[in-house]
Amino acid sequence: MSDLSDFPITKRWPAQHPDRLQLYSLATPNGVKVSIMLEEIGLPYEAHYVDFGENESHTPEFLSLNPNGKIPAILDPNGPGGKPLPLFESGAILQYLAEKSGKLLPTEPALRYETIQWVHWQMGGVGPMFGQLGFFYKFAGKEYEDKRPLERYRAESKRLLGVLNTRLEGRDWVMGNEYTIADIALLGWVRNLIGFYEARELVDFDSFGNVAKWLDRGLARPAVQRGLAIPVKP
């Protein structure tokens, strides 16, 4: 049986199945990337709920795994060389799990890097921009009289949707016929934009027909449906 006792995070979130990959997360757009991925590839794992309301992502135990204090993070007891591997940053985790499982990332070098570039595009553009739009549209940003920040993020979010819409022309998935980690990286954020952030009309989402159809295809996947609800709050 794997021994994870050297990792302080297991003191706060004990592993009931220490031989399985440990996921520390919350069902946010970044968090569900990893839960969806794990459901898609079928790798046994144990999910732990990190309570933002209790500021658990900034506790010493969590920071020992991710010094950036953000979810998701994982602890794989069966990492490279059979040694435990702690890992944070959702994009890095997606790539690691794809390579570990041999799934959802093309092996042909050019296609592999093309897929990874779209994951980085999500991390560098879609996530930050959609998140800022949500802040200035649905949350505290409404208190600002100056509407230029909201307009900036609205315009940039629409531009990014346009990029994705163009990419999906004639394609079922970002990489064509093959569903990959590029789709997993994007699904939660696009879903949140028109769902949780309630910005469908603000960004004229229905004008991006390719994106809308892609989102429907993604959300219809059983593994995606399961992953969107993981981890469950205790």
UniProtKB/TrEMBL annotation:
Pfam families: GST_C, GST_N. Residues 18-105 form the GST N-terminal domain. It comes from the Bacteria. InterPro entries: Glutathione-S-Trfase_C-like (IPR010987), Glutathione-S-Trfase_C_sf (IPR036282), Glutathione_S-Trfase (IPR040079), Glutathione_S-Trfase_N (IPR004045), GST_C (IPR004046), Thioredoxin-like_sf (IPR036249). Residues 108-234 form the GST C-terminal domain. Signal peptide: none annotated. Belongs to the GST superfamily. PANTHER family: DISULFIDE-BOND OXIDOREDUCTASE YFCG, GLUTATHIONE S-TRANSFERASE-RELATED. This is Glutathione S-transferase. It comes from Advenella faeciporci.
